[in-house]
Amino acid sequence: MTVSVLIADDQAVVRAGLAMLVDSQPDLAVVGQAANGEEAVRLTAELLPDVVLMDIRMPVVDGIEATRRIRGTGTSPSPRVVILTTYDLDEYVFDALRVGARGFLLKHAPPEDLLRGIRTAVEGGALLSPSVTIRLIEAFAADRPRPARRPPAMARLTPREHEVFDLVVAGRTNTEISRSLGVAETTVKTHLGHVLEKLGLRDRVHVVIFAYEHALAAPSPS
């Protein structure tokens, strides 16, 4: 199945670069481009893309408001929105996730991460740039009570799965984990799948949330 993608960015050169990257993949295809948030909302309604790559700072209507409108249309299935921006300010991250974005990636991220963000969104998961993930979860965990007991489900993980768990919590990508452990990236994906299944979690973002909720990781000192 080919995944249809709409690109929304007010800079023509950025749209062209993203379109070239997306169209280079056999399973992805750009179906439209928008220069502002209002146009993104209109084209999404007309073209019904699987994924919208959405910039935040755009004229007429910004990316956050455009995402809110797209996610609020009631269309089934609703297009997945992945925020793609040069800004990783907390206010943007929280607002984007609050209105229903399925990913928050920085434009200077490696191309493979951008492509992974699209595919992860289609599969129903969420992908955040590692630095964004850590800051987001630290903020999330700041006011949470710290449990006194290690969750029993952790005992179901194998030693290798524990290693993968810890590296995901540290914000490492699958590629970085494969290099760190000296195994193939497909092997990392298999281990991560087992971790998600055994802990009853949906995606790697929820792995990090789980770790902070159960005192398996601590927020960095301020």
Automatic annotation (TrEMBL):
<keyword id="KW-0805">Transcription regulation</keyword>
<keyword id="KW-0597">Phosphoprotein</keyword>
<dbReference type="InterPro" id="IPR011006">
    <property type="entry name" value="CheY-like_superfamily"/>
</dbReference>
<feature type="domain" description="HTH luxR-type">
    <location>
        <begin position="150"/>
        <end position="215"/>
    </location>
</feature>
<dbReference type="InterPro" id="IPR016032">
    <property type="entry name" value="Sig_transdc_resp-reg_C-effctor"/>
</dbReference>
<dbReference type="GO" id="GO:0006355">
    <property type="term" value="P:regulation of DNA-templated transcription"/>
</dbReference>
<feature type="domain" description="Response regulatory">
    <location>
        <begin position="4"/>
        <end position="122"/>
    </location>
</feature>
<dbReference type="GO" id="GO:0000160">
    <property type="term" value="P:phosphorelay signal transduction system"/>
</dbReference>
<keyword id="KW-0238">DNA-binding</keyword>
<protein>
    <submittedName>
        <fullName>Two component transcriptional regulator, LuxR family</fullName>
    </submittedName>
</protein>
<dbReference type="InterPro" id="IPR039420">
    <property type="entry name" value="WalR-like"/>
</dbReference>
<dbReference type="Pfam" id="PF00072">
    <property type="entry name" value="Response_reg"/>
</dbReference>
<dbReference type="InterPro" id="IPR000792">
    <property type="entry name" value="Tscrpt_reg_LuxR_C"/>
</dbReference>
<dbReference type="GO" id="GO:0003677">
    <property type="term" value="F:DNA binding"/>
</dbReference>
<keyword id="KW-0804">Transcription</keyword>
<dbReference type="Pfam" id="PF00196">
    <property type="entry name" value="GerE"/>
</dbReference>
<feature type="modified residue" description="4-aspartylphosphate">
    <location>
        <position position="55"/>
    </location>
</feature>
<dbReference type="InterPro" id="IPR058245">
    <property type="entry name" value="NreC/VraR/RcsB-like_REC"/>
</dbReference>
<dbReference type="InterPro" id="IPR001789">
    <property type="entry name" value="Sig_transdc_resp-reg_receiver"/>
</dbReference>
